[in-house]
Amino acid sequence: MPEKNNINVLINISNLDSNLKKIAEKVIENIRISDDDALQLFEKGELGFLGILANYVREQKHGDRTYFNKNFHIEPTNICIYNCKFCSYVRKIGQKGAWEYTIDEVLKTVESYKNTGVTEVHIVGGVHPKRDLHYYGEMMSEIKKIMPNIHIKAFTAVELEYMIKKAKLSVEEGLRKLKEYGLDSIPGGGAEIFHPDVRKEICDEKASASMWLNIHETAHKVGLPSNATILYGHTEKYKHRVHHMSKLRELQDKTAGFNTFIPLKYRKENNNLSHIGEVTSIEDLKNYAVSRIYLDNFPHIKAYWPSIGKEIAQLSLSFGVDDIDGTIDDSTKIYSMAGAEDQNPKMTTQDMVKLIKDAKRTPIERDTLYNTVNTF
Ligand code: V47
Ligand code: SF4
Fold first, then answer.
1. Using a 6 Å cutoff on CB, does residue 80 contact ligand 2?
2. Which residue's alpha carbon is nearest to atom 9 within ligand 1?
3. Is the pTM of this model over 0.85?
4. 272 and 341, same domain (yes or no)
């Protein structure tokens, strides 16, 4: 555990702005920082300072423990009724590059992972106009017949809203039904930026911010834990990132159902925001750090390495991150299509362990709910 005195020394010797000093004191005393404090950290915090504070919070929660899992993705289709401006993946029916797997094709993939030690399958895709809740329900129950112990983390709130509405069920009824079919938890996608000014600009057609929050709140109520994301580094300002996190912190105070916060950096290839470009790696690390400091009630902060690259994911372990997601096995296309570093994202357990040990942290293979599967 970090010594309070050490961090005090580090903060006192730097030539700190008085507001930043007050914020640092709050963090050391375990006092929740305000929205305005978070904004000040984004606007004035130098990277090294933010790193020290975020690492302090991270080590209070987890020491050196750094989590990963053995997982694979299924992306049943990239056909989607929506047209989010940042999306490089979406296609329309019949368009070149569109795919839609049948349940049999999905099950063949699942078969290939039997006896490989994977503990989670992450299923997300486009919102296909011809598929519904019962189709995906059947897919999940067939998957569980092949791998009864696999954890199914599936469907963003955006996909859920569409399939539940189509089935003419309430959010609660729909989620209970999906749970019966085999759903175990909900991933964090579809959150993007909650603030209406930005959401309208980048993804105005799909589930609103309040619907996203309602679906996660209801999921927690029916016993489905979930994750949360933010899509940053496009047209949003710092105040929008803080607003987004404030909605998540508020909901987490109510339900305690979120496991992990996953900042997702906007990647610029092959989409309708390409002209904006990408933010720097300094911005990525600052963003991880401020999230760790602000979201005091979120157990974990994840750097999703297929989106950010292995090197920044490794660096992020000194900026508040304690989880780097999974082995993936080249089973997702969302980020390779958007121009991320790894065009065929795949890491072995040994790669994961080495990446974490090289950062002087302790690797823990976890399951989706952060139970320890293996130590190294
Ligand atoms: O909601 C799409 C993002 C998300 C781009 O819960 C993009 O464990 C950057 O949510 N640049 C889906 N991001 C992925 C997701 C996720 C990933 C890993 C783990 C978990 C989890 C959740 O991908 C979408 C959107 O925010 N996205 N296009 C892009 N060009
Ligand atoms: Fe569809 Fe998701 Fe792409 Fe938006 S981000 S267009 S909802 S696949």
1. yes
2. 266
3. yes
4. yes
